[in-house]
Amino acid sequence: MSDKLILVLNCGSSSVKGAVLDSTNGDVLLSCLAEKLNLPDARIIFKVNGEKHTVSLAEKPNHTGAVEALMAELEARKLDKRIGAVGHRVVHGGERFKESCLIDDEVIKGIEECIMLAPLHNPAHLLGIRAAMSIFSHVPHAVVFDTAFHQSMPEHAYTYAVPRELYRKYGLRRYGAHGTSYRFVAAEAARLLGRSEEGLRLVIAHLGNGASIAASNSGKCRDTSMGLTPLEGLVMGTRSGDIDANVFPFLHNNAGLNIEQITDLLHKQSGLLGISELSNDCREIEEAAGKGHEGAKLALEVFAYRLAKYVASMSVAAGGLDALVFTGGIGENSDTIRSKTIGYLGFLGLTVDEKANLAARFGEGGIISQAGSTPLAMVIPTNEELMIAQDTAHLAGIE
Ligand code: ADP
């Protein structure tokens, strides 16, 4: 146990998620969620030892108000003096940030320069970083980028087959997402298998509301399914994933939709929601499918089939496959999706032990393939906060 704690912050445009962690053992001493920022009913909900309480942010309903309320809560619980550093999650670090780093003026400038690549996220992160740096001014602050893990992708994996000039002028290439989760899970997989990351070939599926998959070899990313933006790749809760780009002229000409409407349709009305015509929530869809709902059954099948196709192609990128790892809300909890996906992949040697598959739900994790079969199939609960806390502690010299 360390006597210095790490505050991890994840700031969105209308929310601030926070957690106070012991980076040596992952214990969470306090977590909070400020929501509805910039609205009259802005509030922050604290969770300590399983108990929740809410504080209104009506007087200062912005990021600064949220971080001030967090500081007041830490003071009241005598935790403020134990915070040794603050770690910030940042969605996009472009090509500039290949690893986590301590924040200085140059780093802030770099995050600003990546706004073009993450116009909704990076400005919100900067609001949070500025508020936190002024309120927790006595400790170092670090940033951990969701794109950093993917910076080891080879050029042939991140290059789109479009005029090269677009990459040079606008940085149009594949960047990926969920990198903090992949880094954590890749290291955990090696630890659980009792081997070094060196030479280990993994395909990791991070399946949450947003879903992506990545290939790693020796702990380095070789390819991933999300591209310039998080729209590409797998079927997601409300996002289409891969689709013919000509859907834009097609819907414009035939349905009279404009760019904004088609973009909204692909981001917010597609995926599991679009196919099932029911919900974006995998749990609800599984329940409905169990009762025979045709849309729900099709949604699960399209999700699993697309995922299986990607597992096969990511095995090419990883240079082979030692283990397929499932993580994220769906990956960790849905034995149905895991079983269906592996069902398409028998030709690679993948198998599922249904008893182990059921036992792996709800945070248990573990190997779910049949004894003696290779490649392995595994479930590993992700822990992005812990990864951010560990990077931050390391950069701040707290260990
Ligand atoms: P986010 O990307 O928002 O962090 P999560 O990783 O929390 O999302 O994943 C949310 C998804 O996990 C939802 O689709 C939810 O239905 C699914 N999920 C959670 N528990 C289960 C479960 N027991 N069975 C199937 N799906 C589940």
Summarize this structure briefly:
It catalyses: acetate + ATP = acetyl phosphate + ADP. With 399 residues, this protein is an alpha/beta fold.
Walk me through the structure.
The chain is built from 15 helices and 14 strands. The protein is an alpha/beta fold and 399 residues long. It has two domains: 5-145, Nucleotidyltransferase, domain 5 (2-Layer Sandwich), CATH 3.30.420.40; 194-384, Nucleotidyltransferase, domain 5, CATH 3.30.420.40. It starts with a strand and ends with a helix. The structure holds adenosine-5'-diphosphate. Adenosine-5'-diphosphate is lined by residues 208-210, 237, 281-283, 286, 328-330, 333-334. Pathway: Metabolic intermediate biosynthesis; acetyl-CoA biosynthesis; acetyl-CoA from acetate: step 1/2. Substrate binds at residue 89.
